[in-house]
């Protein structure tokens, strides 16, 4: 990809695939690190001071077979391991470094866990109430679903998250938040699209994850309405609390509404700082961790992936860790009780950009690293 590639070309749909040019195989590696420059609309947020990190490298981590395989994978971009505020391992591909910005994709959803927790703590949102109680204009696809169903990815409706299908709903959402241009509807906002989603708002009979990015932006909308605080300001609070060192870029729609289903872009070190917000060793953020503690205490109350990991409150969990995947191979893994954070950037270059076997292996590597650190 040409580093000076104009934005309009970068997000224009290409051929029968219909993806934005940045997201094509062969372009995606560069596209994921240029997306904050290519998207049609956005915000830039900075903290007034950064959370200091020190470096105390643990040579044993890099010598682990799984870590070596991770670094040798052609998709590898960066891997950072943080124990409390010590960087114990950090590595980058030859074409990337600690100063570069990268899209974190669906890891962004984890911040809505914290935003929702604040609303729950203040009695502003009842997770058992129906979405329509908070958003009277919402369509049938979400109207009767409880807020908790959305948090657990347990809504069956007409929204389809299929990255290989150019006509799928997730592609239409991309057009609304500015990662792709829909020539037939170039000015639709995120919320205009969300209220158009139909279906019956049922639950999964088998308890399997019904992954829908739209869920996150609807919960974020509910929180904005309930708290009477713009999502921009809620995000800024978290960026400042995390002590991000560099600018955090946020994709928005044309009305300035942040895309929290996947619209954050930052450095790998700042992604690790974001992960520190989920750790239990910081009393200053204890009140916003109620949904993290709930997920760890009752993971099976959520939905289930095929490998046995659960999805609860916009978090993947097995009762010990919380985390989230991101399109293209991004991953954030946190063990809150141990204050261990592992952040990874990757660029899976296949047709649809999603390889769950890759994520399962990466999650296993993260767990093995955490065991090394926790046992010391």
Question: Can you walk through the features of this model?
Answer:
The structure is a single chain. With 376 residues, the protein is α+β, with helices and mostly antiparallel strands. The radius of gyration is 19 Å and the shape is globular. Helix 5 (109-121) packs parallel to helix 10 (213-227). The protein is built from 14 helices and 13 strands. It has helices at residues 7-10, 28-38, 59-62, 65-72, 109-121, 131-134, 147-151, 169-176, 190-194, 213-227, 231-242, 268-276, 290-297, 356-374; strands spanning 42-45, 54-55, 76-83, 86-92, 102-103, 248-251, 264-266, 303-304, 310-311, 316-317, 322-326, 330-335, 340-346. The longest helix is centred in the C-terminal third of the chain and has 19 residues, at 356-374. The chain has a nine-stranded mixed sheet, with helices on both faces. A four-stranded antiparallel sheet has the order 1-6-7-5, sandwiched between helices. The mean pLDDT is 93.
Give me a quick take on this structure:
The protein has helices at 7-10, 28-38, 59-62, 65-72, 109-121, 131-134, 147-151, 169-176, 190-194, 213-227, 231-242, 268-276, 290-297, 356-374, and strands at residues 42-45, 54-55, 76-83, 86-92, 102-103, 248-251, 264-266, 303-304, 310-311, 316-317, 322-326, 330-335, 340-346.
């Amino acid at each position: 990809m040409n580093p000076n590639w104009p934005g309009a070309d970068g997000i224009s749909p290409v051929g029968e695939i219909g993806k934005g040019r940045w997201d094509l195989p062969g372009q995606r590696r560069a596209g994921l690190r240029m997306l904050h420059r290519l998207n049609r609309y956005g915000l830039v947020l900075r903290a007034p001071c950064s959370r200091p990190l020190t470096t105390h490298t643990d040579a044993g981590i890099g010598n682990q077979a799984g870590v070596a395989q991770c670094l040798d994978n052609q998709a590898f971009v960066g891997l950072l391991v943080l124990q409390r505020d010590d960087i114990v391992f950090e590595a980058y591909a030859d074409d990337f470094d600690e100063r570069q910005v990268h899209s974190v994709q669906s890891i962004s959803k984890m911040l809505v866990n914290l935003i929702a927790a604040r609303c729950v703590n203040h009695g502003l949102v009842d997770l058992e109430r129906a979405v329509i109680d908070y958003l009277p204009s919402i369509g049938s696809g979400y109207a009767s679903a409880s807020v908790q169903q959305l948090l657990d990815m347990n809504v069956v409706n007409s929204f389809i998250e299929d990255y290989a299908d150019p006509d799928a709903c997730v592609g239409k959402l991309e057009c609304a938040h500015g990662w792709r241009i829909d020539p037939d509807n170039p000015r639709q906002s995120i919320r205009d699209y969300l209220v158009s989603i139909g279906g019956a708002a049922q639950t999964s009979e088998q308890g399997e994850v019904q992954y829908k990015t739209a869920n996150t932006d609807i919960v974020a909308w509910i929180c904005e309405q309930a708290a009477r605080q713009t999502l921009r300001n809620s995000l800024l609070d978290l960026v400042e609390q995390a002590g991000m060192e560099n600018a955090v870029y946020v994709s928005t729609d044309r009305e300035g509404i942040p895309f929290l289903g996947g619209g954050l872009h930052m450095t790998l070190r700042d992604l690790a700082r974001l992960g520190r917000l989920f750790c239990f060793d910081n009393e200053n953020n204890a009140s916003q961790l109620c949904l993290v503690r709930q997920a760890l205490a009752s993971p099976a109350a959520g939905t289930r992936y095929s490998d046995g990991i659960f999805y609860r409150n916009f978090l993947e969990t097995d009762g010990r860790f919380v985390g989230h995947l991101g399109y293209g191979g991004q991953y954030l893994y946190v063990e809150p009780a141990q204050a261990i954070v592992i952040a990874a950037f990757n660029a899976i270059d296949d047709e649809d950009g999603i390889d769950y076997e890759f994520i399962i292996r990466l999650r296993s590597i993260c767990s093995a690293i955490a065991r090394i650190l926790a046992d010391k």
